Amino acid sequence: MFKGIHHIAIICSDYQKSKHFYSEILGLQILQEVYREERDSYKLDLAINGNYCVELFSFPKAPSRPSYPEASGLRHLAFEVYDIEGTVKELNIKGVPTEAIKIDEHTGKKFTFFADPDNLPLELYQN
Prior knowledge:
four-stranded mixed sheet
């Protein structure tokens, strides 16, 4: 029935700050940016390795969504990486704090968490 996941949509509180974070800090490629005047809203299409994956939206006066303690809803967005230690080091150099790297007790794989400008939980997962 399903072919795959097409994209993840994120609504941010500060569009320019989040655009910079996802494109400049995390290195996602900008495919398209559209300003929708009737909604006073931006939509930014982002890709990893040329694969469309994230839509970043701005909406005026969007309500905050609680993250901690764990709230119902989407828990986090995970990015697969080749070298978690190198990626953590790169993020830390760019001023993005990360949690300590842990080992998934079920898979034996390394992972850690960090946050975007709106405190959305993001994960790095070395597969």
